Amino acid sequence: MLDEDILVVKDLKKYYPIRGGLLLRIVGYVKAVDGVSFNVKYRETFGIVGESGCGKTTLARTILRLIEPTGGEIYFEGENILSYKGEKLKDFRRKAQIVFQNPYMALHPRKIVRDIVSEPLKIHTDLSKEDIYDRVLEMLEKVGLSEEHMFRYPHEFSGGQRQRIVIARALILNPKLLVLDEPTAALDVSVQAKILNLLKSLQKEFKTTYLLISHNLSIIDYMCDRIAVMYLGKFFEIASKRDLFKRQLHPYTKALISAIPLPEPDSGRRERRIILRGEVPSPINPPSGCYFSTRCPYAQPLCREEEPRLEEVDEGHFVACHYWRELEDLG
Amino acid sequence: MKILDKWLMEHKYKIQDVKLMMNMIRESFLAKLGLTIITMFILTAIFAPFIATQDPLMQDLTNRFQPPSLEHPFGTDHLGRDIFSRVVYGSRISLMMGITVTLILFTIGTTLGLIAGFFGGAVDEIIMRITDIIMAFPSLILAIAVAAALGPSLLNTMIAIAIVGWPRYARLARANCMQVKNELYIEAARAIGVSNLRLIFSHIFPMIISPLIVQATINLGGVILLAAGLGFLGLGAQPPTPEWGLMVSEGRRFISRQWWISGFPGLAILLVALGFNLLGDALRDILDVRMRR
Amino acid sequence: MEKLLDVRDLRTYFYTYRGVVKALNGVYLTIKDGEVVGLVGETGSGKSVTARSIMRLIDPPGRIVGGNVFFEGRDLLKLSDREMTKIRGRKISMIFQEPIIALNPVLTIRTQIIETIMANRDVSVNEAEEIALELLEAVGLPNPKMIMKRYPFELSGGMAQRVFIAMAISANPRLLIADEPTSSLDVTIQAQILDLLNRLMEEGRISSMLYITHDLGVAAELCHRIAVMYGGRVIEFASTEEIFKEPLHPYTRSLLKAIPRLGYYDELYTIPGRVPDLVNPPSGCMFHPRCPYMKDVCKKEIPEYVEIDNSHYVACHFAGVKDVR
Ligand SMILES: Nc1ncnc2c1ncn2[C@@H]1O[C@H](COP(=O)(O)OP(=O)(O)OP(=O)(O)O)[C@@H](O)[C@H]1O
Ligand SMILES: Nc1ncnc2c1ncn2[C@@H]1O[C@H](COP(=O)(O)OP(=O)(O)OP(=O)(O)O)[C@@H](O)[C@H]1O
Ligand SMILES: [Mg+2]
Ligand SMILES: [Mg+2]
Question: pTM for the whole thing?
Fold first, then answer.
């Protein structure tokens, strides 16, 4: 089993300390990622969906070792990357890449596109200058830019074009895993369509594994094979896309899917929509028991006392809810 | 043709910057003044042998204390040396010293500041405490102390000024570095495997260089002033070197009647310090405009 | 139904150092009494400028250079500043995308809401306080008394937006202009706010609304009619039904095909090219460089904004000619 998985994450935790008082002592923790376990198979697109502040970006950063986790294990191609140092870490960076949420901030403002996109080649290969130039040009053409763009600075590009540059830089070394942290959140609908199409066709060409993070379920649905639903640093449900849209077991997943406004008038969804009470609790002092219990329309006393474990209830379908069976019978 | 096009594209902004700089200098009187002074200063230093009317060290005891005249535009001193030629040659010493010391200051200060800002923690603590100690003293006093301890010479003057001056660059570099290192594009660079060294010097440094250059330009005047101060106190260049501070000091005894002996080298010091200050201010304005683009 | 708002040929330009940004190039828009009109379009298409022009909130370097904004029969652009101040807040009020920024950070919610109420209604402080509590309750805030004591930064985005809505409806305005009020909120919170707006409409607390959004899904759920903007013009305006089922403008059609929808996995349709530069806009129809049906006339003549079918307005040379597509 293990060798179909490119990435295995076990009980990953990342707590940010909160300092306060005169001496800046640690007065508490933001539990941004709080015990997350999942695996990503080769060449699939694994989606993580969740609302803002639930820890998606933190999870992405931790997986790529841009920040150190508080606890847990991360295996990439069977090896524990948390023990990596020096050359090994550098080699890992070659194999796992990231595209950030905000293309306006992810490019060095004083470097021209050629230098930005060629940097991975300069660091990880010893190609000649001419070879590097050719590779960069080839990659830029793949993402829909051309030679004339090579000598421009990032501020001369639109958001969509910048995201293309970021993607070109991420894919130029042909990484095995590409983490996409809300790659289109800052872009317009028509530009978003172009980037999503591009990502899909590049995945076919390079056979890359994608880990796609988004708060937009329509995008997750469009892009992904399997989906994890995240809430307050925890995964509530993991399932294949087909399962998840057919049969949501967790009440939060249900509410989330029903909340998407569809571009179809009179779909009657408004009437059937589950409106959640209140707002997402603070990750500094999450509720006791199930983190969703404060907003869950079906919460029982048990939910406030005991935290449900994420368990596999059907093949490949995981859910963390005490009453998923009862809820399913309820319809 | 194609190569030229590429070059033009790649350097478009540098060319624009130069144009912008020219425009701004053209529009501001003070900037023009500063630029004129500094250009003249540098040209004088380069072409000193052609400008000087005689050997700056040549004594002519029969011609002592000559007031300014056609033959000796700035007069002669107590040893009958031509002050004009001495001032002209003195520009070489000042320029050489100013540039060398500023380069040293810039390099040491910026490197330490970047390291402190980037790594933080204990390294940062140590470097910052050292800068605190140095900056607690007035710079001239500290420079005097260091120069006195090392013994008077031109080289020791430079060392003394360098020791006194680097903390300012270090603090500026550190503060900017701490800001820049949290930017997303720096994290993005880390994600593609850029080493710390490369991150500091190829990614962060270009972002923080502008204020440092302004600082260096303004500081050049200060360095020259400080060197002259040490020379004046006899802790810097030694006679018969035509160093401006030393010349002012030598003429001090005769100031009431032969004012030109101290007066002209003094004026040179003043002009050059002023020139660098004006130029630095103009540069700051220009870089501000560029930042806003 | 009668026209509450009738915007005709509205033009707003910004005189910047880059040149004149022609942000609005002849906007036509009508809102009937009791109606919710959606204004959709991509970034920079002029949605916010339209809203701000209606409210006469355009600051230099911007200027409204032409057109009419008829509200209850009067042209707002011809009113004096004093008369306009009376319209704002009382007859037309507005809510924004970033409610926390739009509130004053150093004043408590109580101060701000009471100030708003007293500015627009003839009531005492005590009465205003009562109205405030009732309004906060009406927008679904639990424990209004506690909320009143708080400062804006102590509220979450969703709560702040509710407070803002409460303030906006406090004077029972005839028209509420909502500029992307849920774009910075989460899906489940957005659902709450949309639900709230619907409820307030049903309760009659909001009578008519201009709802600006770039999310076609939100527009579909909330609006009776939808106006689509492109390059500073409304290029299509029709009932929600027709916009989604029978869009006439090529831009509207493209836009609809570009959004990912649940259960749809084919390649998304993309619109070639980029949004027009409003300093040097393309000649003729603004959309012509990106339009799949472009003909010569599109490059030369600006298409007029005309009624094609019953109440279906389009600005396209070939909107009436069905077989072009
Ligand atoms: N460097 C940090 N220090 C302290 N807290 C942090 C830090 N970064 C993030 N957090 C907190 O951790 C939580 C998760 O943040 P994260 O950015 O991972 O969320 P996200 O799911 O990516 O949200 P969004 O959708 O807004 O991008 C938030 O409560 C955030 O405030
Ligand atoms: N103060 C201003 N100065 C100059 N140009 C402006 C100004 N305000 C708006 N514009 C320009 O007017 C055009 C329309 O802007 P507007 O804010 O109405 O877009 P929008 O449709 O609301 O977009 P978004 O979805 O991003 O809010 C843009 O091209 C913008 O650059
Ligand atoms: Mg994020
Ligand atoms: Mg707007």
Answer: 0.84
